[in-house]
Amino acid sequence: MSIKMCDVCCGRRAKYICQGCGRSVCEECIEPYSLLCTECHKKMEGCLTPEETVGKEILQIFPTKIFFIGFLLIFIGMLIIFLAALLSGLRDSISLFLLIGPIPIILGMGEHALLLTILAVVVTAICVTIFVLLSRRKHF
């Protein structure tokens, strides 16, 4: 059994096949995300229009920005709820609904605890439903 050498660098043992040209390539001469040899990858990058390049960059930055925007919205929402509780006289009523994995932890105290707990459960159910629906979308 002969050892197949890389067709690009001719220096290392080939472990992969380029999806563009079909040559045998080593792990140093293949782009792991596209499974193209370095030469085919360079040709492919040269064929991209400026619009396609911009779209590619946006897709790489988009999830990070969405995460930080979501975190910021949650933080602002918590501040608004805290200020509303301080200013409206709900100092003696509190409710907490934590969902850690599949285990719900429900705490409530005070005159409005039942109403606040029901509200927390409904909002959590809506958020979990939205999360499940969005996670089922096909990613391209």
Describe this structure as you would to a colleague.
This protein is of the alpha+beta class. The protein folds into three domains: 1-49; 58-91; 92-140. It is built from three helices and six strands. The strands form three sheets. The chain has a two-stranded antiparallel ribbon. The protein starts with 15 loop residues before the first strand and ends in a 5-residue tail after the last helix.
What is the mean predicted local confidence, pLDDT?
Answer: 76
Please indicate the count of domains: 3
Radius of gyration based on Cα positions = 27 Å
Spatially, the strands of the biggest sheet line up as: 1-2
Tell me the helix content.
Answer: 40-55%
What gap, in angstroms, lies between the N and C termini?
40 Å
What's the SSE pattern?
Answer: EEEEHHEEH
Task: Report the sheet-strand fraction.
Answer: 15-25%
Largest beta sheet, briefly? Answer: 2 strands, antiparallel
| Gross geometry | rod-shaped
Structural class: alpha+beta
Instruction: Indicate the low-confidence ranges by residue numbers.
Output: none
Number of helices in the DSSP assignment: 3
Number of strands: 6
Keywords:
3 helices, 6 strands, 140 residues, alpha+beta, 3 domains, rod-shaped, single chain, two-stranded antiparallel ribbon, two-stranded antiparallel sheet
How are the secondary structure elements laid out?
Elements lengths: L15 E2 L6 E2 L4 E2 L4 E2 H10 L2 H39 L5 E7 L2 E7 L3 H23 L5
Antiparallel strand pairs: 1-2, 3-4, 5-6
Briefly, what is this?
This protein has 140 residues and is an alpha+beta fold.
